[in-house]
Amino acid sequence: MPLVSLGVIMFAFVADVHVGNHAVMGGDRVRGINTRCRLVVETLQRAVDAAIQRGASDFVVLGDLFDSHRPTPQVVAAVMAVLSTFPGSVHVLRGNHDAASDEVLDDALAPLAFCPNVRVYSRPDCVESADGILLLVPYRPGPSADWLQRDVQVAFACRGMQPLGGVPLPICVAVHLGLRDAANTKANPWAALAEDAVDVSDLAVVCASVGAQMAVAGNWHGHFRWQLPGVEAVQVGALAPTGWDNPGLDGYGRVEFWPPGPGRSGVEVAGPRFLNRIPSRGMVTAAPSGCVLYARLRDTRERVVEAQIAVQSAIASGLLAGGVVEVEAAGAQAEAREAVSLALSGALAERAVHDHATAMELDPGVDRADVTARALRYLRGGA
Questions:
Q1: In this predicted model, what pLDDT tens digit does every residue of 119-177 receive, in sequence order?
Q2: What Å distances lie between residue 125 and 134, 135, 227, CA to CA?
Q3: How many CB atoms neighbour CB 95 within 10 A?
Q4: Phi and psi at residue 264, in whole multiples of 5°?
Q5: Long-range contact set of residues 204-208: C-beta below 8 Å, sequence gap at least 24
Q6: Dist CA 193 CA 104 (whole Å)
Q7: Residue 12: pLDDT above 60?
């Protein structure tokens, strides 16, 4: 049955929270939760607080609330504690990281069903009020082209209310899919073949088929916004970056709102951020207050110690919460190739000496094994 909400409604959206005991910059574990996990839980609480402060009636997680389909009980309890602070309804779409299979309740979200204010969606459904209709379309495995249109239609069919006075209600489609266009496909060629993604223009066509004026999506971690004919689409972006695969200060920690109206523009909340450089004092000041910054530096083997000193100095001065230094990939790869070449050439030389000593004619009484050993010592630089 669709969940019907009476009165003024405003949805607050977040996506890709990825709560879990991450190994990168994990820190100490206390009562089953490490430092990184606590930071992500705190980020989720900030998002909930931002939604409350702006008068949101409903809080929506657009998939990947958890980083794994097997979160520990302590992690689940921490998330439940945060979601229970929201005074209205909480709607959680299943994401690909949440799901163990496509079966209902076979995911990390199942325990949340026991929170009185939380509803989990592993199948298409809708939430409606006199102010608008939200169509909820959770992640489904397989090419999105095979199921997106059908699942949006299924969610649309769940409506129970009729338009008042014959005036159509505003409709928003909420999905767990990557949204691609020519620009991000050119920058990331793998996006063209990603099954869990859809061309934003195709999503606009699907939205138009049910009269939706808005689409919000989780899954891909960057924040993007498109204004297409008749439809606005938003890739909300990761509430909490998962590591240096999500570098930079901007575009994370987003909370978006719908329907549009005064005071309903999106906001960015503080959380962990991952940088590929040591930030300046100005960068730290520009970040949302409360952001925790980590840096990864890559340098040549000769300059690694210098980079480590720079990271430790930034930590001591409060610019960073932590950091790592790695040998730059090009240098490391060159060293590895050289080591392999040397090992290979050495092995081939030893094999050649052994084969030659085995086949050569020796004077009577000469120990063949001793000849082989002496030749190898000579090759290795020994006496």
A1: 999 999 999 887 899 999 999 999 999 999 999 999 999 987 665 556 688 999 999 99
A2: 9, 6, 25
A3: 29
A4: -115, 20
A5: 204/228, 204/229, 204/230, 204/231, 204/233, 206/148, 206/149, 206/152, 206/173, 207/152, 207/171, 207/173, 207/231, 207/233
A6: 27
A7: yes
What values do phi and psi take at 229, rounded to 5? -55, 110
- The dihedral region occupied by 255, where left means phi > 0, alpha psi between -120 and 50, and beta the remainder, is beta
Compute the distance between CA of residue 225 and CA of residue 317 in angstroms, rounded to an integer.
36
Q: Is the Cβ–Cβ distance between 94 and 120 less than 8 Å?
A: yes
Domains of the chain are 3-273 (3.60.21.10), 277-327 (no CATH), 343-379 (no CATH)
Token duo for residue 105: 């309740």
DSSP character string of 126-152: EEE-SS-EEEEE---SS-HHHHHHHHH
Does the pLDDT of residue 243 top 90, yes or no?
A: yes
Q: Report the C-alpha gap between 124 and 144 in whole angstroms.
A: 14
CB 110 within 8 A of CB 120: yes
176 sits in which H/E element: strand 171-176
51-54 long-range contacts, CB within 8 A, separation 24+: 51/12, 51/86, 51/255, 51/257, 52/86, 52/87, 54/10, 54/12, 54/257, 54/263, 54/264, 54/267
Residues 372 and 366 sit within 8 Å (Cβ to Cβ) = no
The radius of gyration of the chain from alpha carbons, rounded to an integer in Å, stands at: 28
Give 26-55 pLDDT, tens digit per residue. Answer: 999 999 999 999 999 999 999 999 999 999
Tell me the whole-structure pTM to 2 decimals. Answer: 0.83
Which residues make Cβ contacts (< 8 Å) with residue 21, sequence separation at least 6? Answer: 29, 32, 33, 34, 36, 37, 72, 75
The per-residue pLDDT for 6 is 39
Residues in the chain: 383
Per DSSP, helices labelled H in the chain are 35-53, 73-83, 144-157, 182-187, 200-209, 281-286, 304-316, 329-359, 368-379
